[in-house]
Amino acid sequence: MRLNTLRNPKQLLNKRVLVRIDANVPIRRGQVVDGPQGKIARAAVDLEWLRQHGAKLVILTHLGRPNGKRTPAYSVAPIAKRLSGLLGVPVKLCRDVVGAKAEKMVSVMQSGEAVLLENVRFHAGEEQNSRAFARQLATLGDLYINDAFAVSHRAHASVDAITEELPSYAGPLLVREVNLLHSLHAAVRHPFLLIMGGLKISTKLPVLEQFLPHVEAVFIGGALAQTFLVAQGKEIGRSVYDKEGVSIARSLLERWGQKIRLPQDVYVARRMSSQAKLHLVSVEEIDAKDYVVDVGRRTMRTYVRAIQRAKTIVWNGPFGYCEIPKFCSSTYLLARAIAARTGKAKTIVGGGDTIPILEAAHLAEHFTLMSTGGGAMLEFLAGGELPGVEALKK
């Protein structure tokens, strides 16, 4: 897939460059939760390249879902602080997204300086893909770069409509993710394993339907597995599952049951607490008072053996309730097994819940691709058209 990219860095000198990044990361006690391979850290590498070539950086991002309203809890001020540390220069925060204050700050910028505009989702026009809002953004730049694959499945003004207002290019992060994911459709090596965790089956369904005819197996874990177990008529106690997805799971099992692998044993607890006692039981022994919190040892041994033979592996979503570390053992085991296969196999992992786990395990650099996008990755793999990507095709 050929995207429009910036070939000549001389074009950047003294130019105002609007750069859309994805810095939508957790904020705890006013500090961003973003490791050395996190979204902001990876975006900063490309921002520094632009800065070194004389660009005046006008950075765009969103944070959370403020629904078009100015919400202090969703201010991007902590992101400006994080970027300042990564770039080694002050990244000034503009408290407005567009308007006179933003225009004034940008007008006095010097080559190599950086300004971060306030959360683009504070403006209702962002999620409406408003051309009027896109035109206001465009007054702040001479050219536009989208380096945010994770939001490129959204038809939003700072991703889609803006490309009609300025010369527009795909950034290196976006290009690399698109090319690697596109290669899965072009030339897949077998055995091919699809590994799915998380909760909502509706977000996984298009990918499952796209790849089930082509994979050797799909390994299911996490809350997603509970939905399939309910579809089989099994007891899952008080565990979380996607009630609306049960009929979908049942249909998939009827059509592709020979390829869909579900847990045969699980860890259960009587309360969702780090002090809870874990019990290993078969899926036939789950009690009505139990919470299923992780995939069991026997199941994981089966999964790992298959991973050790695979040539293509795509993984999205944790296998346990990883908000509590003791419920995350199978996810760490899965991560280590896939990382060990990189080189002999193409390994692609993604999902907003997955990246912090991989960083905590010091495995973030050990995959062919650790995608910054969860929903975007799934939509792309399912064959969908991503507005932010389509807008930048040659």
UniProtKB/TrEMBL annotation:
Alphabetical keyword list: ATP-binding, Cytoplasm, Glycolysis, Kinase, Nucleotide-binding, Transferase
Highest taxon, organism lineage: Bacteria
Kinase as UniProt keyword: yes
Class of enzymatic activity (EC top level): transferase
Reaction catalyzed: (2R)-3-phosphoglycerate + ATP = (2R)-3-phospho-glyceroyl phosphate + ADP
Pathway: Carbohydrate degradation; glycolysis; pyruvate from D-glyceraldehyde 3-phosphate: step 2/5
Annotated residues for binding of substrate: H62, L63, G64, R65, R121, R154
Keyword Transferase in annotation: yes
Subcellular locations according to the entry: Cytoplasm
EC number: 2.7.2.3
Assembly notes: Monomer.
Protein name: Phosphoglycerate kinase
